[in-house]
Amino acid sequence: MDLKRQKWGQNPEPIHPKSLMETKVKEVMNRRPRTVTPNTSIEGLLERLRGQIEDCFPVVNKNRKLLGIVTESDVLHVLQVPLRHVTVGHAMIQQAMKRSASTVGEIMTRRPITVAPSMKIQEALNLMAAHKLRHLPVVEKDLLVGLICLRDIIELYRAPR
Description:
By secondary structure, the protein is of the alpha+beta class. Helix content is 30%, strand content 16%. It has a three-stranded antiparallel β-sheet with strand order 1-2-3. A two-stranded antiparallel ribbon has the order 4-5.
């Protein structure tokens, strides 16, 4: 069964859950995810988030080497107003640093969990569940080749029309 999208935005045919054992990430992933660089401003990131459906961006250098990932959750820390009573600790220091950030490089998750294109969808789902993630960059030799999202996998389950 060929799950490749025939046109941009067209979804693959639905599959049976047992087929997840054989279906590979490369058959479902977005091969051209929008990306940002570490130097992208927070304002630029917010503008891009408003202009697209996805709620995350892989962070890459000019050679498409994956450096990190930035999500709406990361932006939440930038926009969050600090509480009056503050607990001192590593997490609070990180949140304070994110609130004062001016570039994506300052708020991105470095060294994100990734998958390979040849990995099975079920393995990707297991990683998502174990680490409470909705997005996984797809890499080969440290270079970004795609992005797989929980939404892409859920779409495989949709009922036939």
